[in-house]
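User: Please predict the structure of the protein below. I'd like the answer in structure-token form so I can feed it into my own downstream comparison script.

Assistant: Understood. Taking the following sequence of 694 residues as input:
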Amino acid sequence: MSASEPGAPLTALKGIGEKTAALFGKLNLATVEDLLSFYPRAYEAYEPPAYAGQLEEGKVQAVRLQIGGDVTVTWVKKMQIIRATGRDMTGAVKLCWFNMPYLKTTLKPGSVYVFRGKAVRGRSGYSMDQPQMYAPDSYEALQGQLRPVYPMTKGLTSKTIGQAVSQALKAMPVRKDPLPGWVREKYRLAEYNFALRQIHFPDDENSLVLARRRLVFDEFFFFILRVQQLKENRVKKLNSFSMTGSEYVERVLDRLSYQLTGAQQRTLREVFTDMEGEGVMNRLIQGDVGSGKTIIAFLALLKAAEHGYQGAVMAPTEVLAKQHDQAFRELLAGNEIPLRVELLTGSMTAKEKRLAYERIKNHEADIVVGTHALIQQGVEYADLALVVTDEQHRFGVHQRESLGEKGKGQENGKDPHTLVMSATPIPRTLAIILYGDLDISVIDELPSARLPIKNCVVGPDKLPNTYEFLRKQAEQGRQAYVICAMVEESEAMEAENVTDYVKTVRNHLPEGITVACLHGKMKPKEKNQIMEDFAAGNIQVLVSTTVVEVGINVPNATVMVIENAERFGLAQLHQLRGRVGRGSHQSYCIFINRSGSKASEKRLDILNHSNDGFFIASEDLKLRGPGDFFGVRQSGVMEFQIGDIFSDSNVLKDASEAAALLLTEDPGLEQPEHGELRRMMELDRERIRQDISL
């Protein structure tokens, strides 16, 4: 099959055999189409060389230096170290390389090169470890270029991916733009083929900005169209379930050890009014971490089960699903309620799943708790009346739809109520767009007994104090998270990584303190085991990427340390901070700012003085602009591939407006000129189906 044909496998590209294709498969890339939609995560910018006296601490820069004095070679254990000193008229820089013996003959005194790397200030001035080295004319040819840096996996470099993308772009025929001409003109959007080429290999920064804006618009536009179609499909659905009042709910409320907040009581009334009303409930509960969304969901499930129906709750991770399962069972037992809870996760054996399927189908289970295993093909419900999805921003609109479809597939063909929970604070104007098919309830107050998290923003010079604080907390029986931006070291991005940082933390803490690492590249079974061990208290310090942002509840964890905090959006930092402060002990969050810039200090200072997620989200919206895609990481909200609802909020609003105008003109997208748009949406839908089946 030719690489230019629709659905062509990656093996259609030269140089990609079965083994290399398998490596691409680890990145969920199977076809040439997939590859073209696999956008760079960053770009290397080759700026004019600075003088030695202009170098900035911790920043990747290029500097033109003349080698002075002797080049030395030393051995440390089995590692060969090359050292040299480069000078210009403003100062000197110490240069160091590891296991690169050929440099001994290349670096001759008096020779001039451009060195590019991270400058580190020491007592005797600046130094660079393992800098890239260029002849001056070679570096001059690179100046002004932006080179793509792709997400990688073991055995597959960014350069290899870039070469495959380049080949795919050359093979790609000119495509008809899926957007109607009036949409491109009204919102000043770049042409699709131009955008696709420029997002991978931009001519300059302006072309990259135009390309990215167009592709972000497309992503939001297709998403909103799907949401609006979902809304249209649900508008006329009547409530098929009769449930008025609830003795079990009243019993639980009477025996709770705490009083529901005013916001919780208001939200509970809204949920119950929906469940008893004429139409099917489709409601989002939006509330900060610790605001008490889970108890509302449990009471709603209890109400449905008491009236003879089934309820299901889908959590983003197995660990959180198991924690929900245990909490629900304890609450039922403690209130002498004779309902049955069933746990369903992907790691269960085939026999365990088969038996669980039978109990669910035969209505021997009243409340089903699980992960995306709840929407697998073999699961059949007896009388599903309520579907709850926890941490909604981790599930796409189709996953929500698929769980709801499980109710339609029942013999009675009833449409279940849908309750969605999200701890991600999103400004209401954006939430209305993103959750256009849902009514919104906001829990905007925290329980009075909850201790506010104490925050501080520090530079890397305070790390010794941080390690000492971790030691003291661990010795008091508490636990801690340490968050890094990356899994492993990368030449393209200067930030702390989990692989190296876990070794550093272990070196600074006594042997009796157990330190473990966690990241997204681990196998699911390994990840689940580590999270379970941490939840059980067997691990004191967990060094992790942002995979802990949702999906684990450890009340004993009291410290959150976030490295390179300047690289994250405020909303995501707040979400990460929400992993602590869940128990009765005082909790702390330490943001480590390595940039030293005034802008970063200003941003992080907002977190330093506020624990209010909705205030932080609104400030994030004000402070972050389109240029942030060169530095600040994506917010993590809604799992968009390239768009970010905070940095790209104006594009999101434009896409929402365009989708509304288009659907007014052609509600079913049936007009001939919308054929390519339908094809792209179906391709997008098929990818999501595949993700669900995985």
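That's the full token string. The first strand starts at residue 42 and ends at 45.
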